[in-house]
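Supplementary Note 2. Why include the ligand at all?

Several targets in our set were suspected to adopt different conformations when bound, so apo predictions alone were not considered sufficient. For every target with a known small-molecule partner we therefore ran a joint prediction. The input for glutamic acid is given below.
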Amino acid sequence: MSPPVFRFAPSPNGYLHLGHAFSALLNFDLAREAKGRFLLRIEDIDPTRCRPKFESAIYEDLAWLGISWETPVRRQSEHFDAYRKAVEQFAAQGLLYPSFESRAEIALLVAEREAVGPWPRDPDGAPLYPGAAKSLPEPERQRLIEAGAPYALRLDMAAARERAKHLSWTEQGEGPGGEHGTVPARPEAWGDVVLARKETPTSYHLSVVIDDDLQGVTDVVRGQDLFWSTSVHRLLQALLGIAPPTYRHHRLICDSAGQKLSKSTTATALRELRAGGATPVDIRRLVGLS
Ligand code: GLU
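The joint prediction is reproduced in token form.
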């Protein structure tokens, strides 16, 4: 049997903090215990937020923690063609439609809906897409695209669900509500999610699913904040004919106010802690790993 494959997949849009250290160390430890492989993947699909200095800092901080990984590292920005192929498949299956509203226009539509009653929100708390782009006539879509209008390619969730029903995943960790074992996927809770944009042929959901498959990842170990994203990942896997890995969502490291750590808070950044004299052993202790 081939060895299990674990991965840590940060985005280089800020410095790593204690929460990242926990996730990376946990993946690394589990891989070692299981005599498995440990991969590092750079999730840099967003050129407006990702910076080379943050990517260099990821390598530096992880090496300082005593973590080693296989090379070459997969950098998502170098694989847009693989994601584009999946987008083309979904488009050919009639599962995608372009929506043209700006973020401000969407906010206005949501406010209009909420003026008359509650409007559903996704598991992250963002309102579901309220627009009518799904029923835009084809010539109008073509006209807008040819005129250079920006757009998002959304998954027609109802049509996608028709093709892939009764999905679930194996959870070895725990969801925010204590979910464990076989967890039923509820992708419809996310509405018509964005899978790509005019200027970026992919999205977090799409590239994570494709890469975990291409890299042979068997065990996805990541923070509980991504627990319900797994519903979307299961749906995309089913549509693409990909066998799902096992999932293990772990507790999040919070600050003293009980808030999830953010890349914009410098106090818990690994490089700040290191500059203040912390050792890798201190970091392990701080995140509750022996
Ligand atoms: N790139 C994601 C992040 O930095 C993590 C992706 C994943 O583990 O699935 O939050």
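Strands lie at 5-8, 37-42, 74-75, 96-99, 152-155, 168-171, 181-184, 194-197, 219-223, 246-250. The two ends are 29 Å apart (CA to CA). Comparable summaries for the other entries are listed in the accompanying table.
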